[in-house]
UniProtKB/TrEMBL annotation:
Transmembrane segments: 21-39
Keywords noted in UniProt: Membrane, Transmembrane, Transmembrane helix
Species for this entry: Anopheles christyi
Protein's UniProt name: Protein CEBPZOS
């Protein structure tokens, strides 16, 4: 008769770890994409990020300027926010 041999335990650990790593990476990618999409489409959210996390907004602007080679979003946002501040002061 054939005897069954037990599989080494490290193979199971490696396989489980690889699956877990892939799932975690997919979740982190989805969260980062959702954040980027919201930054890209919602000016009010950009203002919130400016007030609370200015380094993240600066990185967003720098990435956009590097890839798009224009500063239109940054200048547009600054103009709108200045106009809103002037209206609230009056």
């Amino acid at each position: 008769m054939l005897q069954k041999k037990a599989r080494p335990g490290y193979k199971k650990i490696i396989k489980t770890s690889a699956k877990t790593l892939i799932v975690v990476e997919a979740l982190l990618f989805a969260v980062s994409y959702a954040g980027w999409y919201r930054l890209n489409t919602n000016r009010e959210f950009r203002y919130y990020v400016k007030e609370n996390y200015p380094s993240i907004l600066e990185a967003y602007y720098q990435l956009g300027e590097t890839l798009g080679s224009d500063k239109t979003i940054r200048t547009y946002d600054e103009n709108i926010w200045q106009q809103e501040q002037q209206v609230t002061k009056k």
